[in-house]
Every structure is written in C-alpha cells, then in structure tokens.
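User: quick one, sequence for these tokens?
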C-alpha cells in the first residue's frame, strides 16, 4: 500500500476541518478530523493489530507512540507514559488530536517495521528498548520520511 499517497489524500480531504481545528503546537497543525477512519486504516496494516510490546490483540482502545510509530494496548500505554514524553510520546488512537507528522510516522512506521529495523526492538526492558541511544536513530529516520 502506498501510505504516503494515502496520507496526502487524507490530509487534502480534511484540510477545511484541520484549518478550523488547528491548535498551536510545536509539531505543526493538529486535528482530530475523521481520526476513527484513519486509525482503522492504520490498524489494518500488517503487524498493527497486536500490541508491539506484549502481543495482545488491539481494539478501539489502542494507543500509539508518536515518535516510534508503534501501537500498543492500554496496559502498555501506562508503561510508556511512565517513560516520559522525551522517550515515548503517547497518544490515544481514539481520543487525542494528532499532527500530520505524527500520523505520517504511524503510517510509515508501524509495529512490523519497528520490530524489523529498530536495533533495540527485542530488548525486554522498555526503558532500554525505547530510551537507549541505539533506538534514537530509528525515531529520527521516521521523522524524515
């Protein structure tokens, strides 16, 4: 699937809503728009239907790490929140507002890519998995794609 084309068409379709709902933020304009439809699309991507950390099946209560582009369950969201926003910027897939950049990282990243490409993806300790210097280049790479 061409995720870049999907995001561009999605953003064009929501432009009037996004401009009306724009909030000042360091990450650029943010919007809720039809977040439900967007997240349904993301959850259908291979590997995104299960929590990246514990493997539990995800549903409408899914959460995500905006800087690593991964999805996880409510229980793991609490663990991610404890890491701090400088390590894992946690967003609800159903309740929070997302910036275009965060949405793009979720589309180009995803659980399968994280597990395949991030050198610390299989480290059992979450603080080391997401907060180590070895993990930072993966998050930076997503931000530039």
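Assistant:
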């Amino acid at each position: 699937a061409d995720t870049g084309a999907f995001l561009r068409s999605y953003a064009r379709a929501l432009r009037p809503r996004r401009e009306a709902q724009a909030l000042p933020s360091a990450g650029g304009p943010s919007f809720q728009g039809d977040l439900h439809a967007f997240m349904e699309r993301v959850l259908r991507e291979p590997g995104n239907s299960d929590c990246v950390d514990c493997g539990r099946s995800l549903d409408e209560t899914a959460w995500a790490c905006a800087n690593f582009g991964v999805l996880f369950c409510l229980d793991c969201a609490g663990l991610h929140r404890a890491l701090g926003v400088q390590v894992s910027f946690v967003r609800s897939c159903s309740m929070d507002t997302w910036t275009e950049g965060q949405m793009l990282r979720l589309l180009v990243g995803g659980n399968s890519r994280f597990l395949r490409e991030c050198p610390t993806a299989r480290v059992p300790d979450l603080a080391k998995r997401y907060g180590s210097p070895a993990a930072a280049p993966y998050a930076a790479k997503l931000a530039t794609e």
